[in-house]
Design brief:
Length: 114
């Protein structure tokens, strides 16, 4: 289980880094949010290249999520993994539901926080 950041680099490509929560008071002391959405997708569901529609957290609850980046790398996330998705510009990323059954995620948009 971990917390990761998916962001657009200076090269216009999406990148992933693991966040050190002990160094991130901005997220450990509370975030302003107003909604949460739960999504259920079948394993194998694929969403082609897309940037994120807004800054948001996506938390894997059940099954798995595979994120593909422009450099050809693929990153696996499972139950309990949270992603701060900030790649709202550039090429974006691909998303595939994994895990053999249903993939359930919770999406939590962030309220105008830079």
């Amino acid at each position: 289980m971990g917390v990761y950041r998916l962001y657009t680099g200076d090269d216009g490509q999406s990148h992933i880094e693991e966040l050190d929560l002990s160094a991130r008071a901005d997220i450990t002391q509370g975030l302003d949010v107003t909604t949460i959405t739960f999504t259920e997708r079948d394993s194998g569901n694929f969403i082609d290249w897309h940037p994120a529609p807004r800054r948001q957290y996506v938390i894997c609850i059940e099954g798995g999520v595979e994120i593909g980046l422009g450099d050809g790398s693929v990153h696996q996330f499972g139950p309990g993994d949270a992603r701060l998705v900030e790649d709202t510009t550039g090429q974006g990323h691909t998303t595939r539901s994994t895990g053999g059954g249903k993939c359930v995620t919770a999406t939590i948009p962030l309220a105008n926080q830079g």
